Structures are given as structure tokens and as C-alpha cells.
User: Fold this.
Amino acid sequence: MSEPTNLWKSRAEALEKARRRLRAGHPEGLHDLRVALRRTSSTAAALGQRRLAQQSKDLVRSLSATRQLEVDRELLSRVAGLGLLSPQSAARLEARWEGLARKLGRRAGRVASSPDFERLARAVARRRLAGTDRDLARLERARRKVEAALALPAPDSGDRALHRYRLRVKRARYLAEDLAASGAPGFSRAVDREKALQEALGRWNDVRMFRERLAQMRREAESQGAVSLASELARVAGALEATEAAARQSAVRLVGGPAQRFPRRASHTA
Assistant:
């Protein structure tokens, strides 16, 4: 068994590093901060720190709109580059989204400096010396529980079910990485598979959410009498329908693949 990592210390360091990157205006700062918060929530929930888990989850949610707009602007750039939108319409949307991005960016900065974030960071930092021999057993129990959900048949009943499955895959991956960092062997294959599945589901979800934003923008354009823009947005959304379907199909094929079950080994003694 490899030398275990202090998970709480890692979480505290990741939170602080991500916050610094966000404040410095790093392109991945917001993404890094949300990942650090999600990992903190996953670790805290597994180790029985429900309050910390909920605090982290609430902060993630407060940053979701900002992150989604980042993704949508990147996809808008790709769509414009493919010629699916006229330069005038692309520029019009980008100008509007730029203003919204500035507003949401200021909000993200306030979240990273908020009393709620400060309290969370201090609480996580205090936990760095609180690890016990029972932590590995708790992580194992949490991993077994989420594996039960991953072992279900492919969630092909609808987009909402697939989205919920995506979140479970993300949690399963984080737990596998926590276990590996804590010295538990045999999780590398699980991490690799769940990372690939998470990325495939993420690509599908990004296109899905982008098409929903385009639909919203089309409705707004119609209400404002911008017939030409509304027509273009409807055409782009239609063109992306096949892309979304292909991304969904690719992800579902991975979901239906052989599950990576909990590694068999000698039981851990608490």
C-alpha cells in the first residue's frame, strides 16, 4: 500500500489554489474552483461531514450559471467558425453574452471572497489533522453505495435521468481517487473508466445546455421582432440536434459497458 495522502490537507490546498487562480483571472480559474468545491463536498459527505458537504455544494451551485456561460461562449465561437451563424448574428450574441459574463464574473469573485467561502476554507483547513483510521472504511462504504447506482441498467429513459447518472459517475470517480490517494490499491482502472465516461457525458450535456440557451435566445428574438436572428438561431439549434444525439449515443454506449466493480482484496481493519 502506498503512502496515504491527507485528504483534508489536499482539499484545503486545492481550494486556496483555485481561488488564487480565479482572482488572477486565469481562464480555468472558475472551473478549478468548482472542481475543488465538488471534491470537497464529495470527501466531506463520505467522511460524515454533512455540513461541510452542503456548504460546498451550495457554493458550487452559486457558480453554475457563470461556468455554463463560459461553456456556451466557447461553443458559440465554434458555431460561428463553422459558418452556422452569420458574422452579424454571432457578434450580436457575443456582445450580449460579454456583458452578462462581466456581471457573472463579478459575482463569482464575490463568492470566492464571501464569508461563506472563508468559513468553508477555514473549516476544511482545521480538518487537516483530523484524519482517523476509520476514514478509509468510510470511503469504502461510500464507494460501494455509489457503485450500486452505477450498476443499474443504462439510464436511457430521458435526459434528466442521464444527467443524474452523470453526477453519480462524477461522485464515483472522486471517491475512487480519494481511496487511491488514501492508500487503497486497485482503483486505477475505475478512475480511468469513470473519467472517460464523465467526459463523454459532459460533452453531451454541454451541447444540450447550449441548444437550450439558443432556444431561449430565439424566443427572446421573436418577442422583440428580430425575425432574422430568430430564424438563424432556430437553424443552428436544428443543425446541432444531430451533434447532441451523437454525443448522447456515444455516452450511453459507455454507460452500458462492463461496470468497474469494487476491487476485491482483504478487508480493511478499522
Notes: The first helix runs from residue 7 to 23.
